[in-house]
User: What shape does this take?
Amino acid sequence: MNAAMLYALTGAGLFALGLYALAVQAHLLRKIIAFNVMGSGAFLVLGALAHRAPDQVADPVPHAMVITGIVVAVSATAFALVLMLRVQSETGQPHLPEQPSD
Amino acid sequence: MDGAVNAAAWAFDALLVLTLLWLAWRVLMGPDLFKSIVFFIAFGLVMALAWVRLRAPDVALAEAAIGAGLTGALFLAALSRLAAGERIANAKRPVENSDTGKSTRPHRGVRMVFIAMSALFFGGLAAALLSLPAEAPGLTIQVAENLSTSGVSNPVTAVLLNFRGYDTLLEMGVLFLAVVAAWSLTPAPKEPVSPPGIVLASFVRVLSPMLLLAAGYLLWAGTHAPGGAFQAGSVLAAAAVLLLLSGKDMKANWPEWPLRVVLGLGLGVFIAIGLVMMLIGHRFLEYPLDYAGDLILLIEVAATLSIGVTLAALFLGGRPQRDERK
Assistant: This one.
């Protein structure tokens, strides 16, 4: 167990927490936030694995991938938010329509 | 002495990851959406600290500017638009339940299933991570060996714009597509422009030139130190968002076609340089050694402008509407 593994496990934990919230929260904004937390967890895993390189130098390739990922995540988030507002203006509610109950 | 430093570092790391997990829990499960978003911004800043601990200052800058700052601003803007939409909906149907808290969560049994599922996911991921070797150089050696051929001396910039230029090209494509998609879906909501208070107005006046300067520095520094087009672009976007918040009108100051040109500039310049390289006998996005540094800087300048304007355009939440006074 070293520092890199500590951060990697934290990343996995964030991913699992986000996944749980994504599943149980009905509000679409909360789902989008949960998705962002899951993304942060995935980035943290990548960064932690890059930190395993010896000689105090981290692997720059995962770092570049995470920077790319952060920018893609914010674009996707912005688009998701526009979609959410559209759902609200169509249905009056920021939730996905309920399934017909039995 | 070394032991004491080590113990302090461990204590700091442990505190940092516990803070991260606690903040994430407050973000995800807090009853009040507004507080959740504020916690999300705090979460992003602590993430940036974690990136510094993982010796990734480039990522820390991007996380602080985009992950915490701009994403938080996007969430807050969306929340206020939701509230405005809710007021309209409630005016039409007065008995609608707008509760966003616990009542919309599923039953206890269903929650248990999801808890088990998430725990299983965590267990699987943890097992996979723990089975990896504790030390692995990854591609550090290859990057260090080829750094002198890349035209820049910051390894992260070398990877982003030279060794894995395709990734960055496609990422510019994603940014461009996001604006096209958001603008196609809806016009920018007309928001009541409240005149900015004296604090915000004078703050913005002082801060925006400083942000421009910081963006220029980050762009220039990116070739040899932490920084680069993405960090610079997001600082630029932050300046634009501040100006929008203080009541500056994007469509008044940015007529339609220059805005669209700048939105496509990063992607366009990137592709154009790639194609020119092919015409003079190289491969797509392969830069000749003598010009690599200049070409990368050229791409980065175009990308910075595009990223800044794109993120600000996404903050608008839709295409800018034509001025009706004309």
